[in-house]
Specification:
mainly alpha, Arc Repressor Mutant, subunit A, Tetracycline Repressor, domain 2
Length: 197
């Protein structure tokens, strides 16, 4: 599928900002292969471009994990699929964190996908507890925060080149399940890792 000019500008803006959070509109136009006038025809200001990046991130987030959350898979399998879907989105989702954390963003169009994902992650953590995959005495809020933080850390380390993209989901899952998982979940995870790597 061919990218539209607007999609190309957004993609290149994400790439530029991932490398330099202060990337100028001129740098973004050059990376996208468009003139300054074309860039400003699509996005009247840097703020409008940043909003488009955030909205794009929300759409990608919902498209990647929404179908997984909707499955009837056991919780630990759902966790595995959610993490492996989230990690490749790295820069496109992580870049929006350079501007403002989604929870503090006042635009409901930006906030809604993030809050939906967090609520679904909360339900996933409740299911992990109910199915005996994580220790029952760990607060759900801590489980959710752990997943959120580990995913953001993985995105940053992949972007910086410190870890390989294929390695990142397994590091997230290993860290989460080693700290929070039960013995049976650890054994299951080791088996999954051997099969998928």
């Amino acid at each position: 599928m061919n990218q539209t000019t607007q999609e190309r500008i957004i993609a290149q803006a994400i790439a530029c900002i991932a490398q330099n959070s202060g990337a100028s509109m001129d740098e973004i136009a050059k990376a996208a292969g468009v003139g300054r006038a074309t860039l400003f025809r699509h996005f009247k200001s840097r703020a409008e471009l940043m909003l488009a990046i955030k909205l794009n991130a929300g759409l990608k987030l919902q498209a990647a994990v929404g179908p997984v959350f909707d499955t009837q898979l056991p919780a630990r399998e759902k966790l595995l699929k959610v993490i492996t879907q989230l990690i490749p989105l790295g820069a496109s989702l992580n870049v929006s964190a350079y501007f403002d954390h989604p929870v503090r963003d006042q635009d409901p169009r930006v906030l809604a996908p993030y809050m939906d994902c967090m609520e679904r992650t909360r339900q996933l953590c409740l299911d992990l507890k109910a199915e005996g995959d994580v220790h029952s005495d760990i607060p759900v809020s801590w489980l959710v925060a752990s997943i959120d933080s580990l995913v953001f850390a993985a995105w940053e380390k992949v972007e910086s080149g410190d870890i390989a993209p294929k390695q990142a989901p397994w590091l997230v899952l290993s860290t989460f399940l080693t700290g929070h998982g039960t013995g049976q979940t650890a054994a299951w995870f080791t088996q999954q890792k051997d099969v998928h790597q």
